[in-house]
# Entry
Amino acid sequence: MFPKSHDLSHPQFLSKYQQQSDFFDNLYLSIPPFLFQQQVADAQFNFQNTDLSRALFSGNLPTTPPVTLQPMTCRNSSPGHMSDAPMSFRARKRLSVESAPHDAKRQRFHSQRTQITVVNQAVPLPGGCRYFFPGSIQSPLFNTRNVQDLGGCASLLQDTIFPDLTETTLPAAKDKLSQQVLDLFQVYQQKNYDLNRKELCRIELQREIQHIFPRSRLFLVGSSLNGFGTRSSDGDLCLVIKEEPVNQKTEARQILNLVKNLFSTKLSRYIERPQLIRAKVPIVKFRDKVSCVEFDLNVNNVVGIRNTFLMRTYAYIENRVRPLVLAVKKWASCNDINDASRGTLSSYSLVLMVLHYLQTLPEPILPSLQKNYPESFDPAMQLDLVHEAPRNIPPYQSENISSLGDLLVGFFKYYATEFDWSHQIISVREAKTVPRTDGIEWRNKFICIEEPFDGTNTARAVHEKQKFSIIKGEFLKAWQVLRDNADLNSILSLRTTTHQK
# Structure
């Protein structure tokens, strides 16, 4: 039995929590991913009507075929072993706060097959039973089957905590470049398992934080939930203390300082390196030792909850969107222009740039969801209704039949030769460019990308002319190279540099 206090710092709980996570880590790493889902399903069958602590920790899993467990190495990202992957590719890891190594290696990217790929994907969240969390706080964003309190009996790590899965057919690849984009997506897209690791941590942290702020709620936001995450994506968390706005310079910092102290003391056995970052929207950065995931936690930045579900809807209404976004994000990371903390583009800005491009084609691939469905994406909608929006939006039927390869080349061409950086604002809300105004968000800015809900500039971090010139140069180079040889390898090459102390 777990300690009745539900104290996550208790050695007995930590041990079992760690073993539970390690079991599925090792199961995932030791077998091909297409077998992992069946293995988990078999394990679920055994656990459903038994005491999980007995079944899991005794190793008494008769219907689960024996596997050879591999040691798990926890770094800054989730495990990336993909034994059935159609290619071999390694991209640079996201730089941590403490260190920024310059050495990088890269294996060649090879497309070996052309076919229609069918994968299980999480789709807009289902209705039905809601998840109930400790302290009688109901999570408004996560609808799933009701489960036992994690403190009294460890909840089964399901294949997905968001179980509404459909067979989603990815676009057919008619050329080499399109197949390479699909292969890259298959290897690097966030798996349901990765999402589970983050969600389990969120549940436990919410329980502990509610001891300090009883009516608070903790939401998973950003790329982890919006459909555009990769296996190495950090987890973003939004702590909602109250419905009213919170002063980010004073009140938010005070709240985060209390959270940081909680992490540094009571939860120090499984939360490490908590740091309070005093940015425009302050955050606490930390690492969960159990899931091996890096997290950023903010207070009451509720626009992040709203845009998570707007982005999620865009991600799933057209099957070319997610592979294209992932390819662009990988390209930007490999070419050192995907780090807002270093004056380049954030991943969110890159996503908005891709969506804008798909909205402004002569035959659009995406509409403006906010214009077509204003009631579903009302910026004044109560937070406990925001998660309903994706379920109400049908797939978008576009007459544009361009391949992924053509769209990728076109994306780079658009920003290299057509988009007017000096006079235009990228607006996904309007599904078009809008003229720059003299407002404070746009004045003297090199890149202007409108946040769809609050109208701020998501690219405000690009404040140096040199960095802006580098970004434009990378777009131009990518377009020219792909135009000439249509090989994804040519734009994903990592620069190998020598680290000098």
